[in-house]
Protein backbone atom coordinates (compact mmCIF):
# COMPACT_ATOMS: atom_id res chain seq x y z
CA UNK A 1 0.00 0.00 0.00
CA UNK A 2 2.78 2.40 1.02
CA UNK A 3 4.85 1.41 -2.02
CA UNK A 4 1.92 2.05 -4.35
CA UNK A 5 1.37 5.46 -2.80
CA UNK A 6 5.03 6.37 -3.25
CA UNK A 7 4.95 5.13 -6.83
CA UNK A 8 1.89 7.25 -7.61
CA UNK A 9 3.55 10.27 -6.03
CA UNK A 10 6.67 9.82 -8.16
CA UNK A 11 4.55 9.49 -11.28
CA UNK A 12 2.65 12.63 -10.37
CA UNK A 13 5.86 14.60 -9.82
CA UNK A 14 7.24 13.52 -13.18
CA UNK A 15 3.95 14.27 -14.93
CA UNK A 16 3.64 17.79 -13.49
CA UNK A 17 7.27 18.78 -14.07
CA UNK A 18 7.34 21.78 -16.38
CA UNK A 19 3.76 22.80 -15.63
CA UNK A 20 2.32 25.79 -13.80
CA UNK A 21 1.27 25.18 -10.20
CA UNK A 22 -2.39 24.67 -9.38
CA UNK A 23 -2.17 26.13 -5.92
CA UNK A 24 -3.22 29.05 -3.74
CA UNK A 25 -0.70 31.81 -2.96
CA UNK A 26 -0.55 33.53 0.43
CA UNK A 27 1.67 36.48 -0.41
CA UNK A 28 1.61 37.89 3.12
CA UNK A 29 3.44 34.71 4.22
CA UNK A 30 5.50 34.24 1.05
CA UNK A 31 6.91 37.77 1.37
CA UNK A 32 7.81 37.36 5.03
CA UNK A 33 11.37 36.14 4.52
CA UNK A 34 12.09 38.85 1.94
CA UNK A 35 10.67 41.68 4.06
CA UNK A 36 12.84 40.78 7.05
CA UNK A 37 16.07 40.03 5.16
CA UNK A 38 18.94 42.49 4.90
CA UNK A 39 19.41 43.01 1.15
CA UNK A 40 21.81 45.94 1.39
CA UNK A 41 24.50 44.00 -0.50
CA UNK A 42 22.26 43.31 -3.51
CA UNK A 43 22.86 45.11 -6.79
CA UNK A 44 19.22 46.21 -6.58
CA UNK A 45 16.17 45.36 -4.52
CA UNK A 46 13.01 45.82 -6.56
CA UNK A 47 10.60 48.27 -4.95
CA UNK A 48 6.89 47.64 -4.48
CA UNK A 49 6.28 50.30 -7.15
CA UNK A 50 8.31 48.43 -9.76
CA UNK A 51 6.63 45.14 -8.81
CA UNK A 52 3.20 46.69 -9.21
CA UNK A 53 4.12 48.14 -12.61
CA UNK A 54 5.42 44.82 -13.93
CA UNK A 55 2.66 42.59 -12.47
CA UNK A 56 5.22 40.91 -10.24
CA UNK A 57 2.81 38.73 -8.27
CA UNK A 58 1.38 37.28 -11.49
CA UNK A 59 4.92 36.66 -12.75
CA UNK A 60 5.82 34.96 -9.47
CA UNK A 61 2.79 32.64 -9.66
CA UNK A 62 3.85 31.64 -13.17
CA UNK A 63 7.53 31.13 -12.31
CA UNK A 64 6.94 29.36 -8.99
CA UNK A 65 7.34 25.59 -9.41
CA UNK A 66 8.81 25.04 -5.93
CA UNK A 67 7.83 22.09 -3.74
CA UNK A 68 8.37 23.57 -0.28
CA UNK A 69 7.28 26.71 1.52
CA UNK A 70 10.95 27.37 2.24
CA UNK A 71 11.72 27.26 -1.48
CA UNK A 72 8.74 29.47 -2.25
CA UNK A 73 9.93 32.15 0.14
CA UNK A 74 13.47 31.86 -1.19
CA UNK A 75 12.23 32.18 -4.77
CA UNK A 76 10.34 35.36 -3.91
CA UNK A 77 13.50 36.75 -2.32
CA UNK A 78 15.54 35.72 -5.39
CA UNK A 79 13.19 37.38 -7.89
CA UNK A 80 13.12 40.67 -6.00
CA UNK A 81 16.88 41.06 -5.55
CA UNK A 82 19.21 41.49 -8.51
CA UNK A 83 22.59 40.06 -7.41
CA UNK A 84 26.04 41.50 -7.92
CA UNK A 85 27.29 38.49 -9.91
CA UNK A 86 26.17 35.90 -12.45
CA UNK A 87 24.40 32.58 -11.78
CA UNK A 88 26.44 30.47 -14.20
CA UNK A 89 27.71 28.22 -11.41
CA UNK A 90 24.13 27.04 -10.82
CA UNK A 91 23.71 25.77 -14.37
CA UNK A 92 25.34 22.41 -13.63
CA UNK A 93 22.73 21.52 -11.00
CA UNK A 94 19.88 22.80 -13.17
CA UNK A 95 21.20 20.52 -15.91
CA UNK A 96 21.10 17.54 -13.53
CA UNK A 97 17.47 18.32 -12.69
CA UNK A 98 16.54 18.55 -16.37
CA UNK A 99 18.37 15.43 -17.50
CA UNK A 100 18.04 13.02 -14.57
CA UNK A 101 14.36 12.39 -13.66
CA UNK A 102 15.19 9.91 -10.88
CA UNK A 103 17.55 12.34 -9.15
CA UNK A 104 15.06 15.17 -9.62
CA UNK A 105 12.19 13.16 -8.17
CA UNK A 106 14.21 12.09 -5.12
CA UNK A 107 14.92 15.75 -4.37
CA UNK A 108 11.28 16.70 -4.93
CA UNK A 109 10.11 14.04 -2.48
CA UNK A 110 12.38 15.46 0.21
CA UNK A 111 11.23 19.03 -0.44
CA UNK A 112 7.58 17.97 -0.31
CA UNK A 113 8.08 17.31 3.43
CA UNK A 114 8.14 21.10 3.91
CA UNK A 115 4.78 21.86 2.31
CA UNK A 116 2.99 22.67 5.56
CA UNK A 117 1.89 26.28 6.02
CA UNK A 118 3.77 26.23 9.34
CA UNK A 119 7.01 26.06 7.34
CA UNK A 120 6.47 29.72 6.37
CA UNK A 121 7.38 30.59 9.97
CA UNK A 122 10.79 28.90 10.08
CA UNK A 123 12.50 32.11 8.99
CA UNK A 124 11.11 33.98 12.00
CA UNK A 125 13.40 31.90 14.22
CA UNK A 126 16.51 33.56 12.76
CA UNK A 127 15.09 36.84 11.45
CA UNK A 128 12.91 38.10 14.29
CA UNK A 129 13.45 38.79 17.97
CA UNK A 130 12.60 35.90 20.24
CA UNK A 131 10.31 36.14 23.22
CA UNK A 132 12.38 37.27 26.21
CA UNK A 133 12.05 35.75 29.66
CA UNK A 134 10.66 38.26 32.20
CA UNK A 135 12.85 39.54 35.02
CA UNK A 136 11.09 37.36 37.57
CA UNK A 137 11.68 34.18 35.56
CA UNK A 138 14.31 32.91 38.03
CA UNK A 139 11.36 32.16 40.35
CA UNK A 140 10.27 29.41 37.91
CA UNK A 141 13.45 27.46 38.58
CA UNK A 142 12.96 27.80 42.32
CA UNK A 143 9.31 26.69 42.11
CA UNK A 144 10.26 23.70 39.95
CA UNK A 145 12.85 22.58 42.51
CA UNK A 146 10.40 23.12 45.38
CA UNK A 147 7.82 20.97 43.57
CA UNK A 148 10.33 18.16 43.11
CA UNK A 149 11.46 18.32 46.75
CA UNK A 150 7.84 18.37 47.96
CA UNK A 151 6.95 15.29 45.92
CA UNK A 152 9.93 13.43 47.34
CA UNK A 153 9.02 14.44 50.93
CA UNK A 154 5.37 13.30 50.78
CA UNK A 155 6.18 9.82 52.15
CA UNK A 156 7.93 11.51 55.08
CA UNK A 157 5.22 14.05 55.90
CA UNK A 158 1.65 14.13 54.65
CA UNK A 159 1.39 17.83 55.63
CA UNK A 160 3.68 18.65 52.71
CA UNK A 161 0.73 18.01 50.37
CA UNK A 162 -0.81 21.35 51.36
CA UNK A 163 2.44 23.12 50.58
CA UNK A 164 2.66 21.25 47.27
CA UNK A 165 -0.92 22.22 46.43
CA UNK A 166 -0.10 25.91 46.95
CA UNK A 167 2.93 25.62 44.69
CA UNK A 168 0.81 23.81 42.10
CA UNK A 169 -1.69 26.74 42.00
CA UNK A 170 1.13 29.23 41.45
CA UNK A 171 2.72 26.99 38.84
CA UNK A 172 -0.57 26.59 37.04
CA UNK A 173 -0.92 30.37 36.71
CA UNK A 174 2.60 30.62 35.29
CA UNK A 175 2.01 27.60 33.02
CA UNK A 176 -1.07 29.08 31.36
CA UNK A 177 0.51 32.54 31.21
CA UNK A 178 3.28 30.90 29.20
CA UNK A 179 0.87 29.18 26.77
CA UNK A 180 0.63 32.33 24.65
CA UNK A 181 4.43 32.40 24.35
CA UNK A 182 4.55 28.70 23.55
CA UNK A 183 1.93 28.86 20.81
CA UNK A 184 4.09 31.31 18.85
CA UNK A 185 6.62 28.52 18.31
CA UNK A 186 4.48 25.39 18.00
CA UNK A 187 4.56 25.78 14.21
CA UNK A 188 8.05 27.08 13.54
CA UNK A 189 10.23 24.92 15.83
CA UNK A 190 8.85 21.52 14.72
CA UNK A 191 9.27 22.69 11.12
CA UNK A 192 12.86 23.69 11.88
CA UNK A 193 13.46 20.10 12.95
CA UNK A 194 11.94 18.89 9.70
CA UNK A 195 13.99 21.38 7.69
CA UNK A 196 17.17 20.16 9.35
CA UNK A 197 16.30 16.56 8.57
CA UNK A 198 15.53 17.38 4.91
CA UNK A 199 18.77 19.36 4.59
CA UNK A 200 20.74 16.46 6.08
CA UNK A 201 19.27 14.04 3.54
CA UNK A 202 19.92 16.38 0.60
CA UNK A 203 23.44 17.09 1.82
CA UNK A 204 24.36 13.43 1.39
CA UNK A 205 24.28 13.83 -2.41
CA UNK A 206 27.54 15.26 -3.75
CA UNK A 207 25.67 17.02 -6.56
CA UNK A 208 23.93 19.13 -3.92
CA UNK A 209 26.80 19.47 -1.46
CA UNK A 210 28.46 21.99 -3.79
CA UNK A 211 25.74 24.52 -2.93
CA UNK A 212 27.33 24.93 0.52
CA UNK A 213 30.34 22.79 1.35
CA UNK A 214 30.37 24.13 4.94
CA UNK A 215 26.75 23.26 5.71
CA UNK A 216 27.78 20.24 7.80
CA UNK A 217 28.92 22.57 10.60
CA UNK A 218 25.55 24.30 10.76
CA UNK A 219 23.67 21.01 10.71
CA UNK A 220 25.84 19.69 13.54
CA UNK A 221 25.23 22.78 15.66
CA UNK A 222 21.45 22.55 15.32
CA UNK A 223 21.52 18.80 15.94
CA UNK A 224 23.12 19.56 19.32
CA UNK A 225 19.77 20.80 20.62
CA UNK A 226 17.64 18.37 18.64
CA UNK A 227 16.28 16.65 21.75
CA UNK A 228 15.18 19.92 23.27
CA UNK A 229 13.49 20.92 20.01
CA UNK A 230 11.66 17.60 19.89
CA UNK A 231 9.64 18.69 22.91
CA UNK A 232 7.84 21.21 20.70
CA UNK A 233 7.02 18.56 18.14
CA UNK A 234 5.47 16.45 20.90
CA UNK A 235 3.55 19.46 22.18
CA UNK A 236 2.21 20.25 18.71
CA UNK A 237 0.89 16.69 18.36
CA UNK A 238 -0.62 16.66 21.82
CA UNK A 239 -2.42 19.88 21.18
CA UNK A 240 -4.63 18.06 18.70
CA UNK A 241 -5.74 15.50 21.29
CA UNK A 242 -5.95 17.28 24.63
CA UNK A 243 -9.06 15.29 25.57
CA UNK A 244 -7.07 12.09 25.80
CA UNK A 245 -6.36 10.94 29.32
CA UNK A 246 -2.65 10.53 28.72
CA UNK A 247 -2.43 14.08 27.43
CA UNK A 248 -4.17 15.33 30.56
CA UNK A 249 -1.75 13.50 32.84
CA UNK A 250 1.22 14.86 30.91
CA UNK A 251 -0.25 18.36 31.20
CA UNK A 252 -0.49 18.01 35.00
CA UNK A 253 3.12 16.84 35.10
CA UNK A 254 4.23 19.86 33.06
CA UNK A 255 2.34 22.22 35.33
CA UNK A 256 3.78 20.72 38.49
CA UNK A 257 7.39 21.13 37.38
CA UNK A 258 6.94 24.15 35.02
CA UNK A 259 8.36 22.12 32.15
CA UNK A 260 7.02 24.32 29.37
CA UNK A 261 8.36 27.75 30.40
CA UNK A 262 11.72 26.28 31.43
CA UNK A 263 12.07 24.43 28.12
CA UNK A 264 10.77 27.30 26.00
CA UNK A 265 13.08 30.04 27.21
CA UNK A 266 16.01 27.65 27.43
CA UNK A 267 15.56 26.61 23.80
CA UNK A 268 15.01 30.19 22.63
CA UNK A 269 18.27 31.23 24.27
CA UNK A 270 20.11 28.48 22.39
CA UNK A 271 18.39 29.30 19.11
CA UNK A 272 19.28 32.97 19.52
CA UNK A 273 22.94 32.00 19.29
CA UNK A 274 22.36 29.91 16.14
CA UNK A 275 20.78 32.43 13.79
CA UNK A 276 23.53 32.12 11.19
CA UNK A 277 23.37 28.32 11.24
CA UNK A 278 19.59 28.29 10.80
CA UNK A 279 19.89 30.81 7.96
CA UNK A 280 22.50 28.60 6.28
CA UNK A 281 20.24 25.53 6.40
CA UNK A 282 17.22 27.54 5.23
CA UNK A 283 19.15 29.03 2.30
CA UNK A 284 20.62 25.66 1.31
CA UNK A 285 17.21 24.00 1.01
CA UNK A 286 15.59 27.11 -0.42
CA UNK A 287 18.14 27.54 -3.20
CA UNK A 288 17.95 23.88 -4.23
CA UNK A 289 14.18 24.23 -4.52
CA UNK A 290 14.60 27.44 -6.54
CA UNK A 291 17.01 25.80 -9.00
CA UNK A 292 14.59 22.90 -9.34
CA UNK A 293 11.84 25.45 -10.02
CA UNK A 294 13.99 27.10 -12.72
CA UNK A 295 14.51 23.71 -14.35
CA UNK A 296 10.74 23.14 -14.38
CA UNK A 297 10.18 26.65 -15.76
CA UNK A 298 12.57 26.00 -18.64
CA UNK A 299 11.05 22.58 -19.30
CA UNK A 300 7.62 24.13 -19.78
CA UNK A 301 8.68 27.28 -21.65
CA UNK A 302 7.98 27.33 -25.40
CA UNK A 303 11.24 29.21 -25.82
CA UNK A 304 13.94 30.39 -23.40
CA UNK A 305 17.60 31.29 -23.28
CA UNK A 306 20.36 31.92 -20.78
CA UNK A 307 21.15 35.64 -21.11
CA UNK A 308 24.54 36.99 -22.00
CA UNK A 309 25.57 39.60 -19.45
CA UNK A 310 27.70 42.07 -21.35
CA UNK A 311 30.25 44.50 -19.95
CA UNK A 312 29.14 46.98 -22.61
CA UNK A 313 26.62 49.44 -21.21
CA UNK A 314 23.78 50.99 -23.20
CA UNK A 315 23.35 47.87 -25.31
CA UNK A 316 20.39 45.49 -25.17
CA UNK A 317 19.57 42.92 -27.83
CA UNK A 318 16.77 40.35 -27.91
CA UNK A 319 15.53 37.92 -30.52
CA UNK A 320 12.07 36.34 -30.48
CA UNK A 321 11.28 38.12 -27.23
CA UNK A 322 7.88 37.42 -25.64
CA UNK A 323 5.85 38.08 -22.50
CA UNK A 324 5.50 34.81 -20.53
CA UNK A 325 2.08 35.73 -19.13
CA UNK A 326 0.44 36.58 -22.46
CA UNK A 327 -1.08 33.50 -24.14
CA UNK A 328 0.25 32.97 -27.69
CA UNK A 329 2.29 36.14 -27.33
CA UNK A 330 3.66 37.62 -30.56
CA UNK A 331 7.46 37.50 -30.50
CA UNK A 332 9.51 40.59 -31.34
CA UNK A 333 13.15 41.49 -31.85
CA UNK A 334 14.82 44.56 -30.41
CA UNK A 335 18.33 45.93 -30.88
CA UNK A 336 19.32 48.84 -28.65
CA UNK A 337 22.84 50.15 -29.17
CA UNK A 338 23.98 53.48 -27.69
CA UNK A 339 20.46 54.90 -27.93
CA UNK A 340 17.24 54.65 -25.99
CA UNK A 341 13.86 53.71 -27.46
CA UNK A 342 10.76 55.81 -28.02
CA UNK A 343 7.60 53.90 -28.95
CA UNK A 344 4.60 55.46 -30.63
CA UNK A 345 1.29 53.84 -31.42
CA UNK A 346 -2.39 53.86 -30.53
CA UNK A 347 -4.00 52.34 -27.47
CA UNK A 348 -4.10 48.51 -27.34
CA UNK A 349 -1.48 48.24 -30.06
CA UNK A 350 1.08 46.63 -27.73
CA UNK A 351 3.35 49.45 -26.54
CA UNK A 352 2.90 48.99 -22.80
CA UNK A 353 2.98 45.20 -23.01
CA UNK A 354 6.27 45.40 -24.92
CA UNK A 355 7.78 47.70 -22.29
CA UNK A 356 6.73 45.27 -19.56
CA UNK A 357 8.09 42.38 -21.62
CA UNK A 358 11.56 43.92 -21.71
CA UNK A 359 11.42 44.73 -17.98
CA UNK A 360 10.29 41.24 -16.97
CA UNK A 361 12.96 39.59 -19.11
CA UNK A 362 15.71 41.78 -17.67
CA UNK A 363 14.60 40.84 -14.14
CA UNK A 364 14.18 37.12 -14.84
CA UNK A 365 17.50 37.09 -16.70
CA UNK A 366 19.44 38.73 -13.88
CA UNK A 367 17.76 36.79 -11.06
CA UNK A 368 16.95 33.36 -12.55
CA UNK A 369 19.44 33.34 -15.44
CA UNK A 370 16.47 32.67 -17.72
CA UNK A 371 14.95 34.89 -20.40
CA UNK A 372 11.82 34.30 -22.44
CA UNK A 373 13.48 34.74 -25.82
CA UNK A 374 15.67 32.91 -28.31
CA UNK A 375 18.57 35.21 -27.48
CA UNK A 376 19.06 38.00 -24.96
CA UNK A 377 22.05 40.22 -24.25
CA UNK A 378 22.23 43.04 -21.72
CA UNK A 379 24.50 44.70 -19.16
CA UNK A 380 23.91 44.19 -15.45
CA UNK A 381 21.46 47.01 -14.84
CA UNK A 382 18.98 48.31 -12.33
CA UNK A 383 15.33 48.60 -13.30
CA UNK A 384 13.02 51.57 -12.62
CA UNK A 385 9.50 52.12 -13.88
CA UNK A 386 6.69 54.64 -14.19
CA UNK A 387 3.90 52.63 -15.79
CA UNK A 388 0.99 52.21 -13.40
CA UNK A 389 0.48 55.48 -11.53
CA UNK A 390 -2.64 56.54 -9.66
CA UNK A 391 -3.85 59.40 -7.48
CA UNK A 392 -2.90 59.18 -3.81
CA UNK A 393 -6.07 60.66 -2.37
CA UNK A 394 -5.22 59.83 1.24
CA UNK A 395 -2.08 61.99 1.03
CA UNK A 396 -3.73 64.57 -1.23
CA UNK A 397 -1.46 63.86 -4.19
CA UNK A 398 -2.72 64.13 -7.75
CA UNK A 399 -1.84 61.76 -10.57
CA UNK A 400 0.59 64.30 -12.00
CA UNK A 401 2.31 64.89 -8.66
CA UNK A 402 2.73 61.14 -8.13
CA UNK A 403 4.27 60.87 -11.60
CA UNK A 404 6.61 63.79 -10.91
CA UNK A 405 7.91 62.11 -7.73
CA UNK A 406 8.37 58.75 -9.48
CA UNK A 407 10.35 60.27 -12.35
CA UNK A 408 12.41 62.35 -9.93
CA UNK A 409 13.60 59.06 -8.39
CA UNK A 410 14.69 57.96 -11.87
CA UNK A 411 16.58 61.20 -12.46
CA UNK A 412 18.45 60.75 -9.19
CA UNK A 413 19.27 57.11 -10.02
CA UNK A 414 20.45 58.15 -13.49
CA UNK A 415 23.28 60.22 -12.06
CA UNK A 416 24.85 57.24 -10.26
CA UNK A 417 27.55 54.99 -11.70
CA UNK A 418 25.35 51.96 -12.48
CA UNK A 419 23.63 51.25 -15.80
CA UNK A 420 19.87 51.67 -15.48
CA UNK A 421 16.82 50.60 -17.45
CA UNK A 422 14.04 53.19 -17.23
CA UNK A 423 10.55 52.05 -18.29
CA UNK A 424 7.94 54.76 -18.83
CA UNK A 425 4.44 54.62 -20.24
CA UNK A 426 2.93 57.87 -21.54
CA UNK A 427 5.19 60.33 -19.73
CA UNK A 428 3.43 63.24 -17.99
CA UNK A 429 0.01 62.26 -19.34
CA UNK A 430 -1.48 63.97 -16.28
CA UNK A 431 -0.94 67.47 -17.69
CA UNK A 432 -1.68 69.58 -20.79
CA UNK A 433 -0.25 68.91 -24.25
CA UNK A 434 2.28 71.76 -24.58
CA UNK A 435 3.79 71.33 -21.12
CA UNK A 436 3.70 67.53 -21.44
CA UNK A 437 5.76 67.65 -24.63
CA UNK A 438 8.15 70.31 -23.27
CA UNK A 439 8.76 68.63 -19.92
CA UNK A 440 8.81 65.20 -21.53
CA UNK A 441 11.55 66.15 -23.95
CA UNK A 442 13.73 67.67 -21.23
CA UNK A 443 13.30 64.73 -18.85
CA UNK A 444 13.79 62.04 -21.50
CA UNK A 445 16.97 63.70 -22.74
CA UNK A 446 18.33 63.71 -19.21
CA UNK A 447 17.34 60.10 -18.48
CA UNK A 448 19.01 58.89 -21.68
CA UNK A 449 22.39 60.26 -20.62
CA UNK A 450 25.29 58.25 -19.27
CA UNK A 451 24.95 54.46 -19.33
CA UNK A 452 21.16 54.48 -19.07
CA UNK A 453 18.65 52.88 -21.43
CA UNK A 454 15.13 54.32 -21.62
CA UNK A 455 12.06 52.62 -23.04
CA UNK A 456 9.20 55.10 -23.23
CA UNK A 457 5.85 55.07 -24.99
CA UNK A 458 3.95 58.15 -26.06
CA UNK A 459 1.02 59.35 -28.12
CA UNK A 460 2.86 62.60 -28.75
CA UNK A 461 4.37 62.25 -32.21
CA UNK A 462 6.10 65.58 -31.61
CA UNK A 463 8.41 63.95 -29.08
CA UNK A 464 9.71 61.66 -31.81
CA UNK A 465 10.89 64.68 -33.80
CA UNK A 466 12.47 66.33 -30.75
CA UNK A 467 14.33 63.22 -29.57
CA UNK A 468 15.42 61.52 -32.79
CA UNK A 469 19.13 62.14 -32.04
CA UNK A 470 19.00 60.40 -28.65
CA UNK A 471 16.27 57.83 -29.22
CA UNK A 472 15.73 55.09 -31.75
CA UNK A 473 12.15 55.41 -32.99
CA UNK A 474 9.79 52.43 -33.17
CA UNK A 475 6.05 52.08 -33.36
CA UNK A 476 3.14 49.66 -33.11
CA UNK A 477 0.26 50.04 -35.52
CA UNK A 478 -3.11 48.54 -36.44
CA UNK A 479 -5.15 47.99 -39.56
CA UNK A 480 -8.48 49.80 -39.53
CA UNK A 481 -10.92 48.23 -41.97
CA UNK A 482 -14.51 49.11 -42.72
CA UNK A 483 -15.84 47.82 -39.41
CA UNK A 484 -12.85 46.26 -37.60
CA UNK A 485 -9.53 47.17 -35.99
CA UNK A 486 -6.82 44.51 -36.27
CA UNK A 487 -3.60 44.61 -34.25
CA UNK A 488 -0.54 42.60 -35.29
CA UNK A 489 1.52 43.54 -32.15
CA UNK A 490 4.69 43.75 -34.25
CA UNK A 491 7.27 46.38 -33.42
CA UNK A 492 8.23 48.42 -36.48
CA UNK A 493 10.99 50.91 -37.27
CA UNK A 494 10.31 54.62 -37.27
CA UNK A 495 7.57 56.74 -35.75
CA UNK A 496 3.86 56.21 -36.27
CA UNK A 497 2.68 58.24 -39.24
CA UNK A 498 -1.04 57.58 -39.07
CA UNK A 499 -3.70 58.44 -36.52
CA UNK A 500 -6.75 56.27 -36.24
CA UNK A 501 -8.50 57.38 -33.05
CA UNK A 502 -11.20 59.38 -34.81
CA UNK A 503 -11.56 56.69 -37.47
CA UNK A 504 -12.24 54.16 -34.70
CA UNK A 505 -15.03 56.44 -33.44
CA UNK A 506 -16.49 56.39 -36.90
CA UNK A 507 -16.50 52.61 -37.33
CA UNK A 508 -18.18 52.30 -33.94
CA UNK A 509 -21.11 54.34 -35.27
CA UNK A 510 -20.52 57.62 -33.46
CA UNK A 511 -22.80 60.39 -34.78
CA UNK A 512 -21.56 61.85 -38.04
CA UNK A 513 -21.60 65.37 -36.59
CA UNK A 514 -19.16 64.37 -33.83
CA UNK A 515 -16.79 62.63 -36.25
CA UNK A 516 -16.88 65.58 -38.65
CA UNK A 517 -16.18 68.13 -35.89
CA UNK A 518 -13.37 65.97 -34.42
CA UNK A 519 -11.64 65.75 -37.83
CA UNK A 520 -11.96 69.48 -38.34
CA UNK A 521 -10.46 70.32 -34.94
CA UNK A 522 -7.68 67.78 -35.43
CA UNK A 523 -6.58 69.39 -38.68
CA UNK A 524 -6.64 72.82 -37.09
CA UNK A 525 -4.53 71.68 -34.13
CA UNK A 526 -2.02 70.01 -36.45
CA UNK A 527 -1.51 73.30 -38.22
CA UNK A 528 -0.98 75.23 -34.99
CA UNK A 529 1.38 72.88 -33.14
TrEMBL record:
It comes from the Bacteria. The keyword Transmembrane applies. Keywords: ATP-binding, DNA-binding, Membrane, Nucleotide-binding, Transmembrane, Transmembrane helix. The chain crosses the membrane at residues 135-154, 160-177, 243-268. InterPro entries: DNA_mismatch_repair_MutS_C, MutS, P-loop_NTPase. Residues 338-523 form the DNA mismatch repair proteins mutS family domain. GO terms for cellular component: cytosol. GO terms for molecular function: ATP binding; ATP-dependent DNA damage sensor activity; mismatched DNA binding. Pfam families: MutS_V. One of its GO terms (biological process) is mismatch repair. Gene3D superfamilies: P-loop containing nucleotide triphosphate hydrolases. SUPFAM superfamilies: P-loop containing nucleoside triphosphate hydrolases. This is DNA mismatch repair protein MutS. It comes from Draconibacterium sediminis.
Amino acid sequence: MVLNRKKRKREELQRTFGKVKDDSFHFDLIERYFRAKDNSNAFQTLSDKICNDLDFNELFMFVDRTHSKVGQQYLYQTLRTIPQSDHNSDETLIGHFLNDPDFRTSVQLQLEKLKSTDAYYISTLFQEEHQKAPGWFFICKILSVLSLVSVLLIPVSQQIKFFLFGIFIINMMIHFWNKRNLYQYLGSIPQLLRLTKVASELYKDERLTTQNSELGKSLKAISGIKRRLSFFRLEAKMDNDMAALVAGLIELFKILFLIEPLFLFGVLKRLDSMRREMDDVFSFVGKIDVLLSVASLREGAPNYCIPKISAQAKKLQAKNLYHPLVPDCVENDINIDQKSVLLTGSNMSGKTTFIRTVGINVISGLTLNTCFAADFEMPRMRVFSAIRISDDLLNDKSYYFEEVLTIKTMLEAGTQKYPNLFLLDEIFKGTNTIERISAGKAVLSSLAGGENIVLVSTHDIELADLLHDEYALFHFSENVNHKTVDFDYRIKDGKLKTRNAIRILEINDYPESIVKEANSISKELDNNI
